[in-house]
Design a protein that fits this description.
77% of the residues lie in helices and 0% in strands. It has 437 residues and is mainly α.
Length: 437
C-alpha cells in the first residue's frame, strides 16, 4: 500500500490545485461577461472530451503504459495552465483562450482518470479497494466544502489571476514526482496479436472492449443503472438554485448551506466507508446506498417551503449515500473486470454517465418550469429507490462480484512482458474526479 499511498497523496495535491483554478476561471468568466450562455459554453467545453473522447482514451490507456499516461496527462495540463497564466500576465487573454484550456484540461483528465482507475486494482489489495474508494470520496467531499473557499481566498490574497492559475502548475509537481520514481505494474498484454502476428489496431481494441461489456449481462445492467441515475438525479441537483429561490424563498446564504451540506455528507460518507469498508458483498453496500439516496431525494422534493431544515437533511442523506453507492461499485468493478480492459470499461461508464447530464437537463428544465423543480427531486428519488430495491432481484447484477462469464478476450496491444504478468494481483484505485452516479 505504501507506493500507492505516495501516488495518492501527490494526486490529491493536484486535484486541490485543479479545483482552485476551475473556480477562479469560472469566476473570471462570470465577472467579465455576466453571460449565462458563456458559462454554459464553458461547461460544454469541460464536458465534451469526457463524453466524446473518453472511450477512445480508455482504449489507448489499455494499450499504453498507464504510468506514462498519467505523467504526460499531468504534465500536459500543467504546461497548458502555465501558458494561460502567461496570457493573463501579458494582458492578451481572450475568452476563447479559457475555453481552449478548459477543453485541454478535460481531455487530460479523461486520460488520467482512466489510467488511475485501471491502475488501482494493480497496487491495492482487493480487501482494501472499498476503503481506498472511501478515501477518494472523503477527499472530494472535503474539496466540495473548502475548494470554493480556497479559490475565493486566493483570488482576494493574490489579486492577479495569473498567480492563482499558477497554483495548478505548482501542485502538479508532487503529483508527477512519485510517478517518476515508483514502479506501476502493467497487465499482461504479450498475447494480443492479430492473425498476421501484428499489433491490433486502436479501433479493433475499442470494438473488443465493447464486446467484452456486451457479453457480460451483469456489467451491462450496472452501467445501465448508472446512466439512468445520472439522467434523473444529476439534473435535479443542477437545479438546486431554483429550488432554494422559488420553493424555499431563500437567497445565496441558503444555497451555500445546501451545497456545503452536500459536501459534508460526501466527506462523512467517504470517511465512514474508508473505516468500515462496507458489507462483504460490495454490491449490497452500493444498492443499499442507492436506495437510501433515493429516500433522501424524495425528502428534498416533499419538504414544505417552511421546513428548509428538512430539505437540508435530505441533501445530507443524498451526499452521504452517494459515497456508499459509488465507492463499493468502483471497488467491485476493479476487483472483477479484467486488468487489461479496465481502461475501456471505466471510460465507457464515465463517458455515458457524463453524457446523461446535458440530456437530463434538456428534459428536467421544461418539466421543472411546468410543474416545479420539487417534482424532479421526487422523480429522481423514486427511480433511485426502485432501482436499488429492484436490482436486488436481478441475478445477473447480484452475481457481478463472482466475475464475468466466459468472455471473448479483448484485443490487446502486443508489448514486451512486464514484471507483472498475472491478472489483477493482490495489488490498485486512484482519485476519481467524476462519479457514475
Amino acid at each position: 500500500m505504501a507506493p500507492f499511498l505516495l501516488i495518492w497523496v501527490g494526486q490529491a495535491f493536484s486535484i486541490v490545485g485543479s479545483h482552485i483554478v476551475q473556480f477562479a476561471l469560472v469566476w473570471w468568466l462570470t465577472k467579465e461577461t455576466g453571460s449565462a450562455t458563456i458559462l454554459a459554453m464553458a461547461t460544454l467545453a469541460a464536458m465534451l472530451p469526457q463524453i466524446v473522447l473518453g472511450p477512445i482514451a480508455g482504449t489507448l490507456v489499455d494499450r499504453w503504459s498507464r504510468r506514462l499516461v498519467m505523467i504526460v496527462a499531468d504534465t500536459g495540463v500543467a504546461l497548458t495552465t502555465l501558458w494561460l497564466a502567461y496570457m493573463f500576465a501579458s494582458g492578451q487573454i481572450q475568452i476563447w483562450h479559457v475555453f481552449l484550456v478548459m477543453f485541454i484540461r478535460s481531455l487530460g483528465g479523461a486520460f488520467h482518470w482512466a489510467a488511475a482507475q485501471a491502475t488501482t486494482a494493480l497496487m491495492v489489495p482487493d480487501k482494501h479497494l472499498a476503503r481506498v474508494a472511501g478515501l477518494n470520496q472523503t477527499m472530494h467531499g472535503a474539496l466540495n466544502i473548502v475548494g470554493p473557499a480556497l479559490g475565493a481566498l486566493l483570488l482576494e490574497a493574490l489579486r492577479d489571476l495569473q498567480w492563482v492559475v499558477m497554483v495548478d502548475v505548482f501542485t502538479a509537481i508532487p503529483a508527477v514526482l512519485p510517478l517518476l520514481l515508483i514502479f506501476i505494474p502493467q497487465p499482461d498484454r504479450s498475447g494480443a496479436v492479430d492473425a498476421d502476428g501484428k499489433r491490433a489496431s486502436v479501433w479493433a481494441e475499442f470494438r473488443a472492449g465493447l464486446r467484452y461489456v456486451a457479453a457480460w449481462p451483469g456489467l451491462m445492467m450496472v452501467i445501465g443503472i448508472a446512466l439512468l441515475i445520472n439522467f434523473v438525479l444529476t439534473p435535479a441537483f443542477s437545479l438546486m438554485p431554483i429550488l432554494v429561490t422559488q420553493h424555499f424563498q431563500g437567497e445565496a446564504p441558503q444555497l451555500a448551506v445546501m451545497e456545503s451540506t452536500w459536501g459534508v455528507g460526501v466527506f462523512l460518507g467517504g470517511l465512514t466507508l474508508s473505516v468500515w469498508g462496507g458489507f462483504k458483498r460490495r454490491l449490497l453496500t452500493s444498492l443499499a446506498g442507492l436506495t437510501l439516496m433515493g429516500g433522501g431525494s424524495i425528502v428534498i422534493g416533499v419538504a414544505p417551503a417552511h421546513l428548509f431544515a428538512l430539505g437540508v437533511a435530505g441533501v445530507f442523506v443524498v451526499g452521504f449515500m452517494n459515497t456508499l453507492t459509488n465507492g463499493p461499485l468502483f471497488a467491485a468493478l476493479q476487483s472483477t473486470v479484467a486488468a487489461d480492459v479496465q481502461g475501456r470499461v471505466f471510460s465507457l461508464l464515465i463517458s455515458g454517465a457524463t453524457a446523461m447530464t446535458p440530456l437530463g437537463l434538456l428534459v428536467a428544465g421544461p418539466v421543472a418550469d411546468a410543474i416545479g423543480v420539487q417534482a424532479w427531486f421526487v422523480l429522481g428519488g423514486v427511480v433511485c429507490l426502485a432501482t436499488g430495491v429492484g436490482a436486488c432481484f436481478m441475478p445477473a447484477v447480484m452475481r457481478l462480484e463472482e466475475g464475468p462469464p466466459t468472455l471473448p478476450r479483448p484485443a490487446r496491444a502486443a508489448v514486451e512482458p512486464t514484471p507483472f504478468t498475472g491478472g489483477a494481483p493482490s495489488l490498485g484505485e486512484a482519485a476519481t474526479e467524476t462519479d457514475p452516479a
